[in-house]
Design a protein that fits this description.
Layout (H helix, E strand, L loop, with lengths): L12 E6 L2 E4 L9 E4 L3 H9 L2 H6 L8 H15 L1
Antiparallel strand pairs: 1-2, 1-3
């Protein structure tokens, strides 16, 4: 979504809106429209800069992406250690 590069869904994060907040759908099973994002801080930055979450989720923003950034950071620490 952010970088617009293709990727398999198994390698992407699914993000949904829950009560006007962005949430990472770890199990990929939450109801509603989802946006798919590479698990990369650069991709998140591009998506935020392009305001892609609002379009992909068909929901008015602006959105706080801190939860997604924290998830990406924790995944990076988990993968490194």
């Amino acid at each position: 979504m952010g970088c617009r590069a293709p990727g398999s869904r198994s390698a992407l994060l699914r993000v949904v809106v829950v009560q006007d907040l962005l949430v990472v759908d770890v199990a990929r099973s939450m109801p509603g429209r989802g946006a798919w994002l590479h698990p990369d801080p650069g991709c998140l930055e591009l998506a935020t800069r392009r305001r892609a979450f609002g379009r992909a989720l068909r929901h008015a923003g602006p959105f706080d992406t801190a939860v997604i950034a924290e998830h990406l950071e924790s995944q990076m620490h988990h993968d490194a250690g």
